[in-house]
Fold this sequence. Notes:
By secondary structure, the chain is an alpha/beta fold. About 55% of the residues lie in helices and about 10% in strands. It folds into 2 domains: about 5-80, Methionine synthase domain (Methyltransferase, Methionine Synthase (B12-binding Domains), Chain A, domain 1); about 90-210, Cobalamin-binding domain (Rossmann fold). The chain has a 5-stranded parallel β-sheet with strand order 2-1-3-4-5, with helices on both faces. The protein binds CO-5-methoxybenzimidazolylcobamide (B1M).
Amino acid sequence: MSKIQEIGAAIESGKGKNVQDLIGxxxxxxxxxxxxxxxxxxxxxxxxxxxxxxxxxxxxxxxxARAMKKGLETxxxxxxxxxxxxxxxxIIGTVAGDLHDIGKNLVAMMVESQGFEVIDLGVDVKAEKxxxxxxxxxxxxxxGISALLTTTMPAVKETLNAFVAAGVRNQVKVMVGxxxxxxxxxxxxxxxxxAADAATAASKAKELNKRLN
Length: 213
Ligand code: B1M
């Protein structure tokens, strides 16, 4: 079994401490942090497939998610590195009704690595909470919304509508992402940017930050 496969197996069986030790050993042994990360993301994809096929249930997904988060804590310093002066603020949250946060946390991490100060509002973020954060941070120019469920995608549009009603829509560029989200969806709801993964999200955030400068 390769190091990456071992990390994947430990995530699937929920052995957080093991995951952390294996990641430390893999990086120490010369594996690139992005290679390790991709292996971990692939594992979560495989967990999702097993759930879809009825081989595992919600508790097993949760156990794997917890171990994945432990692993990300260990990987974070290797991915983010030292950042110098901040280039701007980035508000992010998972949309109302949605509890998935691993992808959001990764996006936050990568955006931070590009020099942004990240304001993470967490999961199940109602429009009002986003609006409060925009008002509290008038210097923030980019806001990210994560949605992992087809059933919570409409809430992204409702959130944007609430921004318009509250008069804050023009204050921020809005980037949307998450597994079911597509460029077409983002265009259809009038958001400003889409990114399929965390690395692309980081460069998109920089691009959007410049557009409002
Ligand atoms: Co859930 N779940 N889940 N789940 N879960 C999925 C998403 C699912 C695809 C599994 C499946 O059926 N194959 C499916 C959704 C189907 C759909 O709607 N299309 C699903 C379901 C159905 C559910 C429940 C409804 C199950 C139930 O209760 N019956 C339930 C809903 C709860 C709720 O939110 N209200 C539920 C619950 C859970 C857990 C709580 C058990 C757990 C989440 C724990 C947590 O996050 N803390 C969980 C998990 C772990 C998953 C899977 C297995 C893994 C998600 C993950 O972390 N992926 C997932 C299957 C899958 O994704 N294949 C699944 C790894 C992560 C790095 O990828 O989040 O896609 P991802 O993020 C990527 C990109 O999408 C992108 O960058 C990230 C990094 O590259 N990205 C952005 C994300 N946000 C972005 C924002 C951006 C830009 C890019 O800009 C702002």
